[in-house]
Design a protein that fits this description.
Elements (H helix, E strand, L loop, with lengths): L5 H8 L9 H10 L8 E8 L11 E5 L10 E4 L2 H10 L3 E3 L1 H8 L7 E4 L4 H5 L2 H4 L17 H10 L1 E5 L5 E8 L4 H17 L10 E8 L5 E2 L6
Parallel strand pairs: 3-4, 3-5
Antiparallel strand pairs: 1-7, 1-8, 2-6, 8-9
Helix pairs in contact: 2-8, 3-7
């Protein structure tokens, strides 16, 4: 087992692992116990009472955070003709079709998000084996397979995040940076939280949210009391 640094040991002393904190208190404590020397990401993690193996319980979506993520995302758009021109005008970092597919096949991944028009999904689909494991495949549910490439690019640049439940029933979503004001992190969190609450499957019985934690890149997790939200 890896030995914890002195900074981490000091940070852990400030967090009561047996306690669930008020939302605002939890976010402030997560920032206070951040041990990274850079502007770390603040993330929330949900443990949900769902069965991802069932189609009606595969929670997935995307939302634009009101205060952004603190990171500028590089966007690659697969489009042709007028749609390619629209993507360039909207601020896409890279635009192309088979030429971009070939670059990816050769190991190029200098982008964060892929947007594709529906007619290009035949080309993009061939990259499933390399894009899938990295979570980069565009999907209609997250608004990244669309004819409205202008809107898609602008939303990603404005701070759009995607969320998806994993095999264990967990969802991890960034809500900003340690440098953000607490109020902005709370607002971003509330936007995500509202979406996940609305996505509760009808088949779910009992407690929907088993656990909710906020953490920073190299900081300890702080449990949030869902009753405080």
């Amino acid at each position: 087992m890896a030995k914890k640094s002195k900074q981490m040991q000091e940070a852990l002393k400030k967090v009561d692992t047996t306690k669930v904190y008020d939302l605002k208190e939890a976010i402030a404590l997560a920032k206070e116990t951040n041990t990274a020397k850079f502007d770390a990401t603040v993330e929330v993690a949900y443990r949900l009472n769902v069965d991802p193996k069932k189609a009606d319980q595969q929670i997935r979506g995307a939302v634009v955070l009101p205060n952004g993520t603190g990171k500028t995302q590089k966007v690659l758009v697969f489009a042709k003709g007028e749609k390619a021109k629209e993507a360039e005008a909207a601020g896409a970092d890279y635009v192309g079709d088979s030429d971009m597919a070939n670059k990816i096949q050769q190991g190029w991944f200098d982008f964060d998000v892929i947007v594709a028009t529906p007619d290009m999904m035949g080309e993009v689909g061939k990259l499933g084996r390399v894009l899938g494991p990295k979570g980069l495949m565009p999907n209609p549910k997250t608004g990244t397979v669309t004819m409205d490439v202008t809107k898609a690019v602008e939303e990603v640049k404005a701070g759009k995040v995607t969320y998806r439940v994993d095999k264990a029933g967990n969802i991890h979503v960034p809500i900003g940076k340690v440098s953000f004001d607490d109020a902005k992190l709370v607002e971003n969190f509330q936007t995500i939280h509202d979406m996940i609450v609305k996505a509760k499957p009808a088949a779910t019985k009992g407690t929907y949210m088993k656990n909710l934690v906020v953490t920073t890149t190299f900081g300890p997790g702080v449990k949030i009391d869902t009753a405080s939200i």
